[in-house]
C-alpha cells in the first residue's frame, strides 16, 4: 500500500488526505468542488496545519496507488482523490465509461463479509462506487490483504444496464443498481487466495 521509503509522517499525511478528500471535506468546512478538487492552501490552513506544500507534493508523487491528482488551475494548486468518495456532491470526476474490456474485473474482499455478499451481492455501502481491479496482478483497486476475489461478468452486467467506469489511476468503478448493489447473478466466479472456487448460487 505504501512504499518502503515513506516515513510514518508521510503515511499519516496520505491517510489524512484520503479521509479529507474522499469523505470528510464538507464536515471539516473545506470547499470541495463537484470534480473533487480542493485548494492545497485551504487544506493546509484549515486541516493540515503541521504540513507544507512540499509534503503534499512528495506524498502524491510517492503514493504507489496514485490515489491523488495535483493540478494547477487558474494559477492555484489544487488536489483531489481519484476515487473512493462517499461525498455525494462529487459527481464530476474524470471517469471514463467502459464499453468493452480485455481484462478481468475483480473485487477483493474478506471471508467475514462473504455470507452477506453471497446473499445480497456486492454493495457500495456509503461510497459512491464499488471498486474493482483490472486483474489480480493490478495493484490499484485491490487490497493486498484480500482473502476472496470476485470476478464480474462485465458483458451480462452491461447488458442489464450497469455502468462501469475507469478512474484516472486505472481503478474500475460501478455504482451498482438502484439499491447500490451488484447482484450475484453478475458474478463469474469467486476464488480464495489459494485458488479454491466458492459456490454462490
UniProtKB/TrEMBL annotation:
Family: Belongs to the KptA/TPT1 family.
Organism name: Temnothorax curvispinosus
Catalytic activity: 2'-phospho-[ligated tRNA] + NAD(+) = mature tRNA + ADP-alpha-D-ribose 1'',2''-cyclic phosphate + nicotinamide
Entry keywords, A to Z: NAD, Transferase
The keyword Transferase is annotated on this UniProt entry: yes
Cross-referenced Pfam families: PTS_2-RNA (PF01885)
Gene Ontology molecular function terms on file: tRNA 2'-phosphotransferase activity
E.C. number: 2.7.1.160
Gene3D superfamilies: 3.20.170.30, RNA 2'-phosphotransferase, Tpt1/KptA family, N-terminal domain (1.10.10.970)
Biological function: Catalyzes the last step of tRNA splicing, the transfer of the splice junction 2'-phosphate from ligated tRNA to NAD to produce ADP-ribose 1''-2'' cyclic phosphate.
InterPro entries per UniProt: Ptrans_KptA/Tpt1, RNA_2'-PTrans_C, RNA_2'-PTrans_N
The protein's name: 2'-phosphotransferase
Matching PANTHER family: PUTATIVE PHOSPHOTRANSFERASE, TRNA 2'-PHOSPHOTRANSFERASE 1
Keyword NAD (UniProt): yes
GO biological process annotation, one example: tRNA splicing, via endonucleolytic cleavage and ligation
